[in-house]
Amino acid sequence: MVNMSLKLLMLLALLAVSQTTLALTKIIASVDANPVMSNESLVLTVIADDSVERDSLETAPLLKDFILARTEVSSQTSMVNFKTTRTTRWQIVLIPRKTGSLIIPALTVNGHQSKAINVQVIEQGSANSTQQQDIFITAELSANDIYVQQLLTLTIKLHIGVQLQRGSLTEPSLTSATIEQIGKDIESDGIINGKRYRIIERTYAITPEQSGKFILDTPMFAGDIMVQSRRRSGFLSFGETKPVNISGDKLPLNVRPIPDNYPIDANNSWLPSELLTLHQEWQPVSSQGKHEFKVGEPITRTITLTAAGLGKAQLPKIIMSAPVGLKIYPDQAELHSSLTKERLISQKRQNFALVASHAGEYILPKITIAWWNTVTNKYQQAVLPEQTITVHANADLPQNFIAPSPATANTLSNTRLINNTATSQPIIIEKTSYLQWLFLTLWILTVFAWASHVFYLKRKGSFNIRNSKPQKVNDNYLALIAACKKNNAEQALNLILPWLNNISTNHGKVEVSTLAAAIVQINNAEFTCAINDVQQHLYGKKVVEGSWVGKNLLKAIQQFNTTGFEENTTRKFTINPN
Asked: Model-level pTM greater than 0.70?
């Protein structure tokens, strides 16, 4: 009984001693580097010798001279020889707000305070800077004094001279501006002051939408790097990680408003650029500077707009008008951009197909695009001068060819062609959303109808024999020929029925409403293959964009226009007797 009492007393004594060691007695604060470079982070470690709440540490006093990048809190409990120790550790990543002598003030945890720490922050590249940074960021703007909506580029280079476990780079920020990364990151190696760095380069396009004076916040790097372990055991060294935050420089930016003398109206938009040009090409190629063509010959005019310091979305529309007697078929514009010597070059290229209905001289009005030269600070205009084209009579066309009226409009369910008027309005082609399903169904019906027709002819024992009869050229035929030469599959397919329904035969006008009926009506293997080819290109499972060539369809249409429809006569055939 006595022994049990003694053991109980000893246990209570040990518990009492251990409990006295668990009371919070001191707070210790330390930094991992001193002095430290500007824009470079340091790690402040605060240790309390007891287990306390995570939010017991008051960090508000640090905000005066430092930016709190991130905070990690951990607790540890250990017992050695019946002695229990508990600690709470805070690791705070700090980024100095300025250079010079900064004070980390005394920090408080449950009424206990740490000692203040004096930290020296040295400017990068200064005479007092003897330590080379392991990680740093450089930032460069293409310009710092620009106009509103003028595009500038920001080039960021992240230099990494240590082993990196993980890391990320934030996006730059600027008030009232659109920011977009251009291209992909570029990685390279370089040696700076004898130290090798892995360099990651990233470029941004920045377009301010508001005038005034601003500060551009460049990206910040946050990650963990590998450091040498303090723990060593024989030949083994255990790697440890250290949190690192590196901020880039803050760059001032002056954004000017639109000048008062720049004319902004329905025809002119605000285009600030270092250089803006217009260029044109003609197909067929003109000889000796003269633009001479033939009636019915498709003419392609390619206009290219090139601008430095503008994004693709900022490039204006290219509007081309033509006088009565010419039809315009604008193609969809192609947009390109590339980064050259920290300067973004954007380009819009658009084809316009012109078809003349009769011989004569036509004057195309000049094309003017207003812009503001950001180098000379002057208003300028990019101009394509007035063009005169001469269209000669075409000996290949019939003499009774009648020019179509400019007001004529041919309507199909999914296509509407609006001819030019005296005000020189271009033809507009509109598409409905159900076209691909409609033509896919028509394609299947075409194959079925063709097979049924062949089977029917074999049963009847009759074939068609051609009776050559040239067809008159109509405006839809000219447009169809132009679409084939431009390799425009969708436009060519949409013009088949309007062209066919304007052809006269010995029995009157042709009336077909489906492509299947058109194939049966023409009854030509080359035409059938060409139609199937264009439908497969547009609506097949494996569509290769831009792979369709209109050569075969063009040949079939021109051959049909020369020979005409087939007249039905009867030719008997017999099956060989058994």
From this structure: no
